[in-house]
Amino acid sequence: MDKIKLAVAVLLVIAGIAGFYHYADQALLYRVLGLLVVIGIAIAIALTSQPGMAALSFGRSAVLEVRKSVWPSRRETTQTTLIVMVMVILVGIMLWLFDMFLLWAVKLLTGQGG
């Protein structure tokens, strides 16, 4: 029965997308609203299946885990951002110097250097 529910949900989404493009002469607002309604119905049907219930349960547990997370303070975030910016600048300078060295070496090896 679950496969039938999921197939119906997929067919509804396909029909909604086809209807969206079929009624191209109608106002965009009505087409988008119709597509959203059809997708909402398809999601509701899919959530009544066993895989849909499992996905919903997984989503709820993921939200609970995010709530348990300890987020960094403003000071920690600022310090980390500054460290990242300094490291990006240092690596950029190192790569630029390495590129300049390689350019010099290639010019020297090919005889194009002055």
Write structural notes for this entry.
The protein folds into two domains: 2-68; 72-114. It contains four helices and no strands. The chain has helices spanning 2-22, 28-47, 50-68, 74-110. α1 (2-22) runs antiparallel to α2 (28-47). The mean pLDDT is 93.
Question: What features would you highlight for this structure?
Answer:
114 residues, mainly alpha, 2 domains, 4 helices, 85% helix, elongated
Q: What's the short story on this structure?
A:
With 114 residues, the protein is mainly alpha-helical. It has four helices and no strands.
Instruction: Tell me the strand percentage band.
Output: under 5%
The biggest sheet, with number of strands, parallel, antiparallel or mixed sense and barrel status, is: none
CA gyration radius, whole angstroms: 28 Å
Q: How far is the N terminus from the C terminus?
A: 79 Å
The helix count comes to: 4
Number of strands: 0
**Helical proportion, percent range:** over 70%
Work out the count of structural domains: 2
Derived from helix and strand composition plus strand pairing, the structural class reads mainly alpha
Q: How do the SSEs run, as a string of H and E?
A: HHHH
Low-confidence stretches: none
Mean pLDDT: 93
